[in-house]
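Q: I'm writing a short methods note and want an example of a predicted protein-small molecule complex. Could you take the sequence and the SMILES for flavin mononucleotide and return the bound structure as tokens? Please keep the output block clean; save any remarks for afterwards.
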Amino acid sequence: MTLLESIYCRRSIRKFKSDSLSPEELSQIESYAKKIPPFLGDIQTDLYITKTSAEGDSIKGLYKINAPHYIIMYSEKNSFSNLNVGFILEQLSLYLTSIGIGSCYLGVAKPQKQLLKKDTLEFNIILAIGYPDEPLTRAIEHFKRKNITEIANNASSISGVVRLAPSGMNLQPWYIYKKPETVKDTGETYHIYCVNRRLFSHMHMTDMGIAISHIYVYALANNLDINFTNMKHPNISGRKYIISANIQKNEK
Ligand SMILES: Cc1cc2nc3c(=O)[nH]c(=O)nc-3n(C[C@H](O)[C@H](O)[C@H](O)COP(=O)(O)O)c2cc1C
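A: Understood, no commentary inside the block.
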């Protein structure tokens, strides 16, 4: 299964087999993770995968799920760190689906003190992982998501992959505005917005990174060039402008 195929069938896994992943599998996951392109290369990130059940037990918090391993993500602190971590971690989660491993984001759980920092980087979010003890995938019609008209001004493959993205409490904070094409345009431009909700603003930035990674995976799989630019658009009716994605045919 490719990462793009994972987008169309993935689901959060909340029941895991108790078996641990082998040391080879854990190091394969770690080396894949280290090669994932970040959204912003100048924000340093790192990860740690728990190996023992004692390490796993030390992770506590609301809505925690029992899993044989947890990927703990760390990042430099910055207003874009959550978006960047969401962008990286979703690519890892899609990869895990593609190799038969289940995962679920834990947005509220936290590790104990000694795992709260990694060198100079701070704890960001956890992904529970392991062999699934429930179906790993589902048919597209079983995704519980908003209608496309609620999240985009235009139905397209791009808004389609954003629509399927996972989000904290399934709040789906995104809106995709496709700029009408003009004769002068090169490629297609999508302006990406997020609901302006203060209460969940940190979690929503992670959600936005996840959604943007779906656009990125779609573009790569279709051999399209993609560029993200801050076009400094104004916020619109309760929605905060995040970034614009320009997508063009790769002429090479
Ligand atoms: C940032 C973030 C935090 C999440 N936190 C939790 C959590 O703490 N516990 C949980 O069971 N699921 C959590 N989820 C999973 C969402 O509830 C789930 O993605 C959403 O309901 C959509 O379902 P699906 O992933 O099966 O498509 C989180 C998802 C995201 C993206």
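A: Remarks, as requested: The helical segments are 3-7, 23-35, 53-57, 81-98, 148-151, 157-163, 201-221. The mean pLDDT is 95.
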